[in-house]
Amino acid sequence: MAAAKQYWVYHERQEALLCGQHALNNLVQRNVFSPGSLAEIAEQLDQMELNYMAQNNEGGTQSKDFMKRVAEGSGNVDESGNFSIEVLRSALMNSYNLELPSLRQKGVGDARDVTEFEGFICNRSSHWFAIRKINGRFYNLNSTLERPEIISHFKLAAELEALQSAGYSVFCVVDSLPPPCTSQDMMESGLPQYWWSEENLIQGKTDSTTTRRDNDPWKKVGSGRRLDGKRPGSGGSSSSFGSGLEKSVSEMTEDEMMQMAMAASLEQQSAPSIGESAYEFELTAEPPEGAPGAVKIQFRLPDGTRAMRRFDSSDRVGALYAFVSSKCPKQRIELRAGFPPSDISSQRDSSIAESKLAGEMIHGRYI
């Protein structure tokens, strides 16, 4: 008699405020979407919106509406890495040809039971999370949870209704999601620390498939990580939330996460400015698309405009300063990356690869 097929559940945990990325990866059960790829989609959507406004508003690029939209910055991603529903929809469509309609959209949930859907993306304010059907069972894959939680078919409709009553928007995937993991080879599509055995989850065991809790890197995260993998405030004083004890991001409320971002931002703003001489670096030649070692980096320039350029991963971070300086001549600038956005001047002699800035959004400002 053939052995029963084994299933694994992929559950990325919260890092910084990148819950939109984690929700998508948990939905498709693969580590497919990165902050950089989603930021690129956001930039494309922003440009499409601006082009439409320029062509259809009286006054074109000089109209009040157009100038207001430019001044507001991106409507599809903010500085902390929160992406819009349009970014998530575009990412799913581009990678899997999947639509992500609202559950309340006419004709979507009217004539079928919610248990017939394969997955859901839920959103309120700046938080996103996924619910996914795997081997006939639904799992709450909220990235703030320690482990996936099973939702019975009987409770699913009530859970979704309760979420919507609490102010959540619920989006759905009818079918055709990528198949769940059923082999060791398929586990290569995800990060190893985030896999859970279906059998262990059903039995209520608290250990993931590949990583014991004592080795769980999230237990040591403390007050969170920036996009570059470093701790917020690692170069200066630390902040707390009244108790004097550090919390992991998975334990924080949305308000606490915003307090963390604001506190770190205030600390960074008090740092001393660095003179122009620190930014005298050569702008290297842009490598061709697809060249070995070529990486794309997004920029929000000090004047509010956006740019994207390829660099070699071996280029020094100083080349990023040279690029921004070429766009803003005779101006003293500061560049930041990560969450909360942190000054990267101390990394200017390191390579882009060493500083883990490939695919990042670099924020510039005048000083």
UniProtKB/TrEMBL annotation:
It is found in: Nucleus. Residues 205-249 are annotated as: Disordered. The keyword Transcription applies. SMART domains: Josephin. Its EC number is 3.4.19.12. Pfam families: Josephin, UBX. SUPFAM superfamilies: Ubiquitin-like. Residues 210-231 have a biased composition (Basic and acidic residues). CDD domains: UBX (cd01767). GO terms for cellular component: nucleus. Keywords: Hydrolase, Nucleus, Protease, Thiol protease, Transcription, Transcription regulation, Ubl conjugation pathway. GO terms for biological process: proteolysis. GO terms for molecular function: cysteine-type deubiquitinase activity. The keyword Transcription regulation applies. It catalyses: Thiol-dependent hydrolysis of ester, thioester, amide, peptide and isopeptide bonds formed by the C-terminal Gly of ubiquitin (a 76-residue protein attached to proteins as an intracellular targeting signal). Signal peptide: none annotated. This is ubiquitinyl hydrolase 1. It comes from Discostella pseudostelligera.
